[in-house]
Amino acid sequence: MQSLIFFIIALSLLVVIHEFGHYWVARKCGVKVLRFSVGFGQKLWSKQLKNGTEFVIAALPLGGYVKMLDEREAPVAEAELDQAFNRQPLRNRVAIVSAGPIANLLFAVFAYWVIMVIGVPGLKPIIDDVTADSPAAMAQLMPGEEIIAVNGKATPTVNSLFQQWLKFAQSGETVTLTTRSTDIETTKQLTLPKLGLDDAGSLFSKIGIKTVQPDMPPILGEIVADSPAERAGLQTGDELISANGKQLSSWQAWVALIQSSADEEMSIEILRDGQVQQLDITPAADENNVGRIGAAVNTEGYEIPAELRSELRYGPLAAIPQAFSQTWQFSVTTLSGLWGMLVGTVSSDNLGGPIAIAQFAGDSAQQGFIAFISFLAMISISLGILNLLPVPVLDGGHLLMYFFEWVRGKPLPESVQIQGQKIGLFLILLLMVFAFTNDIARLIG
């Protein structure tokens, strides 16, 4: 239920922002907006604004819409013809249609600006281990070194380092690292392995490093439904003691064991309500043959040691270009992912539908304000990018029609536009069905 609530909040907010972009530019262009509706269906509340727009809150809170004066939809009085959308010059129509996706992208910039001004806590990127004969070993990276910058850009946290490496790994570039060890700074050249978006999760292992992680007690937090952990009988609050007779005292030690034990049955001991119990569990292999059991560590009451804590933060002015850069980077990644799915280089299993988005919304909200607003920024970018695709029905499809109108000097025949709308609607429905199927497949495991 919580995930559903946050999904409705997220979707409604982002679609209203999108529609407000259309509304604001339409009003600036002199187009009369008949209705601005938050939600669909039965009216719950409405108010007539001074500019003639009816503002509505409707019963189904899944987005909204803007209805403009348009002769193609209903007769227009002679005195209001100059306010009709269809009577506007091409540049005005392009601006009005473009405004929705642009509003989503600008909201993402604002969201990232807020995040960077508040600051994102994280772990310092201190190297714990280097794999032999790996790119990291070739770059002479050493355990104990902290990677403080990539190509001169500060990387105060593990996540900021990951983001920088991911950006350059997509083309397999060589980057300049600034490292620090015992207050001595050194520069090193690292040639990143060329990775696709599907390989992002294994970026650090492909480079050949592990970063220092705090020793957390092996107490279970969230258990994923129908996971190996749930099927084995593990519960939230269980403390893991030993596996196959060997005692493991930290969460990290358990993670390493489970990841290396895909499809291997283990006999484990746990402490529950003061009683030691024995269970059997078999970690499931993921697409990289890494073992997973579907359980998270309980972080409640745990505090990361001060020597490992860091924060990515910028001043209000310095955060502006960083916010634009983050928005641009995620937009490029989104487009690369879509193109990869189209040509088959990225798995279409990555496509998520409403169930996946609802789960992400709920999870991010539980993690706090920063995680939730970051989720909003990413979904807002995705919404903006998707709406710019040249598919009839979407904003990008209308812009494509306007391009042909500009080339021809007159609009495309109405019959062509209608057929385009039908094709576009079919493609959107097909995409929705495919995404929903992926959601169901994830749920049933």
TrEMBL record:
Residues 192-250 form the PDZ domain. It is a multi-pass membrane protein. Its EC number is 3.4.24.-. Its main location: membrane. GO terms for biological process: proteolysis. Belongs to the peptidase M50B family. This is Zinc metalloprotease. It comes from Methylophaga nitratireducenticrescens.
